[in-house]
Structure prediction request, 575 residues.
Amino acid sequence: MLSGPNYGCRQAGIVRHGLTAVFSLLLFGTAVQPAHALPSFARQTGQDCAACHVGAFGPQLTPYGIRFKLGGYSDSDGKDGHVPLSAMLRGSWTHTRTDQAGGAAPHYGSNDNATLDEASIFIAGRLADNFGAFVQTTYSGVDRATSLDNTDIRYARQLTLGGKDTTIGISLNNNPAIQDPFNTLPAWGFPYASSDLAPTPAAAPLLNGGLAGQVAGLTAYGFWNDSIYAEVGAYNSLSSGTLNWMGISDDAGELSHPATYWRLGFFNDMKKQNWSVGLVGLNASLQPDRNGGPSNKYNDIGVDASYQFLGTRQHVGTVNARYIHEYQTRNASFDAGEATNLKGSLNELNFNASYYYDQTWGLTGGYFSTTGSSDPTLYGPSGSPDSSGYIFQADWTPFGKESSWHAPWANLRLGLQYTMYNKFDGTSSNAGDNDTTYLFAWLAF
Amino acid sequence: MHGRQSIWKGLISLTITGLLLGNSTSHAAGDPKLGADMFAQECSECHSVKEGKNKKGPSLFAVVGRKAGSIADFVYSEPMKQSAISWSADKIDAYIAHPRQVVPGGKMKYDGLEEEKDRADVIAYLSTLR
Prediction:
């Protein structure tokens, strides 16, 4: 997915062959894309989409949605016969300020491209008591390929700890932070949809999709007294054969030992409004050559915060923010002559705010920035990984509420998104050439 | 003697008035308009006020005066079914103040509405749903 900064390219350390490699890595990003509100969850629980999602369409979760996810997607209305299947389609039109020489992607023109972004089938919902899944398989119209997408399979139990309600669980998933319940980390951050046919910055921390789809991880979590969240887990690379079987390109290399992931959060739900703060960390050692050799080490640490005003749900406002700092030790890239400096760092800042009227009409504005230490070999002509800009989105979600037409089967969001760059891959001049207008129609049923 | 009788009469009438007022201020003083907003904020995620529309919780259409666990098309918890509660204003008030104390082991995952005035508003709103 040639998406916005939240799902941009893999981390800079694995950029090996200039722009060609960047392009292929960007395409690799289609393997795992942000997922969305699922009607099968609504059918299972009897709830409206708006109960779990801000703006009656995913993925931005309300406190109810956070609890449903942490409960293992298994909460239900107590009735039998719910089928945990959903489907989703998203089509779009993309315009970039200047044409993309040679075409935006194979089979596409240099500008003003219409496409089917994705068609997905989900196994999503309760599979047994305390056990549920969110497994997405996606056909990418740009890649013309089908692959396993977001995967999060959970087992969770409710218990009392220190006299307080506590949820504990485990998650088997394929992208660090895809299992996170908050709306701030890259896997679920704004923008929730973005163009596969527009240029995006090359550098991003590993936590921003760098291992998406390439790994399998098991994490254990606890949510105590509806307030304190803690999680820890480890990820390992999937084999080439497994990736091939799942339709995912084997592009990221191999973890030389399991990557560790941890998360701490504090959540305060006051019904009318809620807020959260958190810390997150990912430590990985990625070996570009699966046959052996040195590794690039990534130590990511981040801080995030969110606020939601829900009120009577007629006027809803949200603010989400995150900052991730990444330390890199590029043993492999340095040895291969692909990096001038052995050590380096990246900083990613992402901030966005949204307003929804009547759970139908939405406006969102966001700022993004990636900065880091320069490296003339690793970061191409500019020698800098810096990129920054703004994203604005207006959307309309006519369904997904209690009285909606054919609820909860019919779900639609129409959106217009504009991304403008102040800086792109280290340069300010001509950064605006990459400005992107993205018009999309998103269906779920 | 006459003076003493007057004092007694006054005390009795004050007590009766107080009881009546006490009974009415907790519920009848509620503002249904404010209650609708409070309902939207606190309850509407899980409860519809439409007749026959059950969500995570049962429809609250005409809930005042209804017997607990009586909607056929809703799966109640056993404790709720066995509670034998009739949803008078007083019972609703007690329940939404402390759900787990009134129906231990029930399904409703709600900590309770703390302010008496807020509860009165919600009950006033629910009383309009007929």
